[in-house]
Design goal:
This protein is 0% helix and 52% strand. With 504 residues, it is mostly beta strands. The protein has one domain (73-503): Porin (Beta Barrel). The strands form 3 sheets. It has an 18-stranded antiparallel β-barrel. The chain has a two-stranded antiparallel sheet with strand order 4-5. Strand 17 and strand 18 (423-437) form a beta hairpin. It is globular and about 60 Å long.
């Protein structure tokens, strides 16, 4: 389903430039693997994430609430802290800011990330981690694993502001490597994003529990050659609610609903504005105290403001899940999905319209496993339908890209190792394959009459050093390579990071 609540402890930061795993442009660019025990990324809006450097909140990012006790060094050791704050400064260099196949443009970037979060009852865990992606029906980039709630009531709220300053990139003339066209840059690369997250959970104590989440953000699409023409700024909101009813000790039901709203600032991006409504029903059967099997049905109604791309999906799953406290948890499910345009003609006669009638197998895997007390392995994978944000692929001046939908494949692996109590190593790697069905490019001959297919590979090692309880430094390297049969969209990039992180 497209809605889950995710309990996550914010551990050592892994300063990666991108979340390993989603294709360029139309999604959250590179999704970081997240799990209960792995590093938690404070995405600047995976969704921001949207391909931009990520600041991460270190473990126990906490500050005290107002108190009559004098503020001294031991204030941070007190319990019942309701208000927490963080501040990070990041310096990075990327070798290919605009993701071009040649004539790469390198850039230095300074990123200031700050925010506050609060939980009631007080909790040192960040109670929700919502990672959105504009291309995903329903808005969620990856369905996180939803663990069991034992508390009667929990509320959570956070605000995050992220300022990105790109040095030496304004007021430049751009020469398109493929078309040789000179363009005077009319936008600034500097970006300020805002993100609000909230969660409420209630357990009646009488077999019924309800959870609700919401995320509102003001952000931008990932950088590409389009940055010389527009910043692709947007607003989005994701709301979800889920109710669970225990029928017996062995059998329980769950119903979910989510609403995702997307609105772009520029008029020539307006065809991508849409609202998705997603409904899901589950039946779980508990095999043991730690394992269960389930069947699931989802219906997603994807409604564009222009109505040209309106479509819907029916999804059917069977799955298996386990939750062994402190050791291993996960979920594996597979099934069948049908995607169809709301008003499909008998034949596809209009390149600009989505005329969809597709049937495919789909699957999703989430695994989080502590190999030892100091090492953790997380794995996420999926095969699913995604929307095509066509404006993200219009790089040429005289060309227009069209596609009906994307059949998206992703696999990502995270390995974390506490080498010493204050030193943490991470390695993230991913593969993403996107098949753009019924795609075409105007005014282009030959190979670009075929469906576009993109392969994207990402690897990112990082190290974090805790200098003291509330201050860490970290360094990271990220390599990304996109290989497309539309050769002008190929690119590779090397990005290097250093950051300092203060949290209370």
């Amino acid at each position: 389903m497209l809605f889950s609540v995710h309990i996550a402890i914010a551990e050592m930061p892994a300063a990666t430039s991108e979340h390993p795993g989603v294709a360029k442009g139309d999604k959250a660019e590179n999704i970081l693997i997240t799990s209960k025990s792995s590093t938690e990324a404070q995405t600047p809006a995976i969704g921001q994430n949207d391909g931009k450097p990520v600041q991460v909140i270190p473990k126990a990012a906490a500050a005290t609430a107002a108190t009559d006790v004098p503020i001294t060094g031991d204030i941070f050791e007190k319990k019942n802290r309701y208000l927490h704050a963080f501040l990070s400064a990041n310096q990075s260099y990327t070798t290919n800011l605009y993701k071009t196949d040649r004539d790469h443009e390198g850039a230095w970037t300074t990123i200031i990330n700050s925010g506050v979060w609060t939980a009631f009852p007080s909790n040192m865990k960040r109670s929700v981690n919502i990672i959105t992606a504009n291309a995903s029906p329903g808005g969620l980039a990856i369905e996180p694993f939803m663990p069991s709630f034992s508390q009667r009531f929990q509320a959570y709220f956070s605000y995050n502001a992220n300022l990105e300053m790109y040095h030496g990139q304004n007021d430049k003339t751009y020469h398109d490597p493929d078309f040789g066209t000179g363009i005077t840059k009319n936008t600034k690369d500097d970006r300020l994003t805002h993100r609000f997250d909230g969660m409420l959970h209630y357990n009646s104590g009488n077999r019924l529990s309800v959870s609700a989440i919401d995320q509102y953000k003001i952000s931008y699409d990932a950088f590409s050659e389009r940055a010389y023409l527009t910043d692709d700024k947007y607003k989005s909101n994701l709301f979800g609610i889920a109710g669970t009813l225990d029928l017996t000790k062995k059998l329980w039901l769950r119903l979910d609903y989510s609403n995702f709203y997307l609105n772009y600032k520029e008029n020539f991006d307006k065809n991508e504005d849409r609202m998705d409504n997603t409904y899901a029903a589950y039946i779980f059967f508990r095999m043991t105290s730690k394992t269960s099997v389930f069947v699931e049905y989802d219906f997603a109604d994807i409604g564009y403001d222009s109505s040209i791309g309106d479509n819907h999906e029916h999804r059917y799953f069977t799955g298996f899940r386990w939750e062994m406290t402190g050791k291993s948890s996960g979920q594996i499910k597979g099934g069948f999905a049908r995607k169809k345009s709301d008003n499909s003609p008998t034949t596809d006669t209009d390149a600009a319209s989505s005329d969809i009638s597709a049937n495919n197998w789909i699957a999703a895997i989430q695994i989080d496993h502590n190999l030892t007390s100091k090492t953790n392995l997380s794995f996420n994978a999926y095969r699913r339908y995604d929307e095509v944000l066509e404006h993200r692929y219009d790089y040429g001046i005289s060309e227009k890209f069209y596609a009906d939908y994307t059949l998206s494949h992703f696999a990502g692996l995270h390995f974390g190792w506490h080498v010493l109590p204050n030193i943490h190593l991470n390695i993230d790697t991913s593969i993403n394959y996107n098949d753009f069905k019924e795609s075409r490019l105007e005014n282009r001959q030959g190979e670009n009459l075929k469906d576009r297919e993109d392969w994207k590979y990402t690897v990112s090692p990082s190290v974090t050093i805790a200098l003291w309880e509330h201050f860490t430094i970290n360094g990271a390297y990220s390599y990304t390579n996109l290989d497309s049969n539309y050769n002008e969209n190929d690119y590779f990039d090397h990005t290097f990071f250093v950051s300092a992180n203060l949290f209370m």
